[in-house]
Amino acid sequence: MDDLDAALTRLSDAQQATQDARQTLHAIIRQMIAHGPRGTQAEIAKRTGYTRERIRQIVRDSAPVPENPAKQTPEPLPHSQSEDIQTDTGDLPPPPMATP
Hints:
Order of helices and strands: HHH
Oligomer: single chain
Mean pLDDT: 84
Helix content: 40-55%
Number of helices: 3
């Protein structure tokens, strides 16, 4: 292994350590917000340098994402007697076309 490979390995390890530390920090922030007293968000912002909006994003991004209702199969409507009634239009002509 040459110097370049060693440096790239160290960089990759450092990036992974940074990501792990960030995930741990965010987990602690979420826990503090969920169970802390009033003013916790301001204390976290002061100690971490994060904005209050960034703290809200961290908490929001950890929330479970609800399933998209558009992707769900709709339940069939209950059968009603009105569906059995058919109207007989007979031999009526089509309605007249609108003229401009």
